[in-house]
Amino acid sequence: MHEYISQSEEDTLNIARQFAQSLEGDEVVLIYGPLASGKTVFVKGMAMGLGIDENLVSSPTFTIMNIYSGEKLLFHLDLYRAEEKELSLLGIEDFLGMGVLAVEWGEKAEAQPWARGSIKVKIKPGPKTRLIVIER
Ligand SMILES: Nc1ncnc2c1ncn2[C@@H]1O[C@H](COP(=O)(O)OP(=O)(O)OP(=O)(O)O)[C@@H](O)[C@H]1O
Ligand SMILES: [Mg+2]
């Protein structure tokens, strides 16, 4: 388990970039944190670490999933509006292993078979800073 204090958006980008550089390229990363805590910022940082243009990253709230291609593939899932029963219909298993899968609102994916053994990133906002806990 690793803990980081983020004082700014730039800090979160850097923490996520370094984290992503340590990945093989086929991991599932569940991201936890309340509204506007920086989950999408963290995914942008991950994109940078995977050799992907971070400007491609936008919140897929209305599309469920975005796919970004760079040196590696990054699948970006946002489950804020997703219902548990829809999740099994997405066919996540079909592209697992082809790239890194980053999941906002990771708690909603915990029961999925593909989430077993995933890395967990927990963003805990304080009054001024955010604590970022990475469990793998
Ligand atoms: N330390 C920090 N780390 C990340 N973002 C920060 C930080 N401090 C301030 N911010 C701001 O907080 C906001 C985080 O927005 P972001 O969309 O990443 O949150 P989110 O958790 O994905 O929200 P949502 O629940 O809507 O998906 C941005 O506007 C960012 O500039
Ligand atoms: Mg978001």
Set down the secondary structure blueprint:
Elements (H helix, E strand, L loop, with lengths): L1 E5 L2 H13 L6 E5 L6 H11 L15 E5 L3 E6 L5 H4 L12 E5 L14 E7 L4 E6 L1
Parallel strand pairs: 2-5, 2-6, 4-5
Antiparallel strand pairs: 1-7, 3-4, 6-7
Helix pairs in contact: 1-2
Give me a quick take on this structure.
The protein is built from three helices and seven strands. The protein has helices at 9-21, 39-49, 84-87, and strands at 2-6, 28-32, 65-69, 73-78, 100-104, 119-125, 130-135.
Structural class: alpha/beta
Percent of residues in helices comes to 10-25%
The tally of helices reads: 3
Order of helices and strands, N to C?
Answer: EHEHEEHEEE
Outline the biggest β-sheet: 7 strands, mixed
Query: Are there runs of 5+ residues with pLDDT below 50, and where?
Result: none
Oligomer: single chain
Reported by name, the CATH topology is Rossmann fold
Name the overall outline: globular
Q: How many β-strands, per DSSP?
A: 7
Mean pLDDT: 94
The molecules bound to the chains, other than polymers, are: adenosine-5'-triphosphate, magnesium ion
Radius of gyration: 14 Å
Distance between the termini: 7 Å
Strand order of the largest sheet: 1-7-6-2-5-4-3
> At CATH's second level, what is the architecture?
3-Layer(aba) Sandwich
- The CATH superfamily is known as P-loop containing nucleotide triphosphate hydrolases
Give your account of this protein's structure.
By secondary structure, the chain is an alpha/beta fold. The protein has one domain (2-135): P-loop containing nucleotide triphosphate hydrolases (Rossmann fold), CATH 3.40.50. It is built from 3 helices and 7 strands. The chain has helices at residues 9-21, 39-49, 84-87, and strands at 2-6, 28-32, 65-69, 73-78, 100-104, 119-125, 130-135. It has a 7-stranded mixed sheet, with helices on one face. Helix 1 (9-21) packs across helix 2. The chain is globular, with a radius of gyration of 14 Å. The termini are close together. 34% of the residues are buried. The model has no long low-confidence stretch (mean pLDDT 94). It binds adenosine-5'-triphosphate and magnesium ion. Adenosine-5'-triphosphate binds at residues 6-9, 11-12, 33, 35-41, 59, 104, 130. Residues 6-9, 11-12, 33, 35-41, 59, 104, 130 line the site of adenosine-5'-triphosphate.
